[in-house]
Predict the structure.
Amino acid sequence: MNSTNFFNPNGDDILNETLYGANPTGFVDFNRPKYKWSTNIYDLMNANTWFPSEVNTSAEKKAFEQLSDNEKEIYKLTFAQLSFNDSAQEEYLADFRRLATNKIVKSTLTLQMMQEVNHSKSYAVLLDAAGNSNEVFDLYKTNEALKRKNQRIADQFAKYIEGDSADGMLLSAMASVNLEGIYFLLGFSYIYVLGDKVPGARDMIKFISRDELNTHLPLFANIFKTLQKENKISASIIDKSYEMIQEAVDIELEYGKYLIDNYSIMGLREELITNTVHNYANDRLTKIGLDPIFPKTNTTYLQKLVDKHLSMNDVKQNFFETNVTNYAKNSIDFDDF
Ligand SMILES: [Fe+2]
Ligand SMILES: [Fe+2]
């Protein structure tokens, strides 16, 4: 490899380091960010750092055993899928990071990779406490619906990450918007529906969802918008972005419907999950500067559950108190546009 990849005295001025195609000097200088959103998101991610050991999982086995049979299946199949998302995202970010030429954005992606690994660790801690770790992590081997969702996500990730182009990078960013903003959401809300019955799982999901929705999704939304602004992105590439989110909605609803059709639990109906996923997809499109294309309905019960747990005000656990002020910064504006 060329040494200019590490030290490049004739590289671009740091304030001209574009997201794609720049010639960086090699230095990470947080005092001179080209994009204010990049340092804001980095600081918030850092401030929100948490560890799985902070969640009380001591009663998880007892809690799990008291669930109904259908609730147990929803619990296991939800964590089996969510844990795949985080494993895949950590690997994918390493590939995506290679395409980026703005050093602060690269640093932020590095921190995100650490957080995704932290999420993987948290599933292991939780499922070990629940007493079903190996069974849940291996469910993809026997459950065709789970296997299919994971495969479709992996296929969308793999589709555009190869090569080196602004178009490919933009579509790869779209795959990440889908992961952070769509594929987790029914899983999060299913665990919140179980709620007080599984406090360990619920609290772990609270932490994970805050990382995904308060920082990872805004990071990739800004990356998408910046790539579009700095490069000549054709209408056909934007059309592909719409196709990708349509596919993401299909992937999420297919698995979501499979779960509620086979393991019916109170409060979950097909219309509710369809409206929820459509509303999320419209929101994600708006966040990346595109037009909402899905049928619109009022904010659903499941969305309200997810929102409620994103806010810090309802958190009463002692271990969290020192971090509350940091989470309060979630209201800062990430948008430079
Ligand atoms: Fe994650
Ligand atoms: Fe994430």
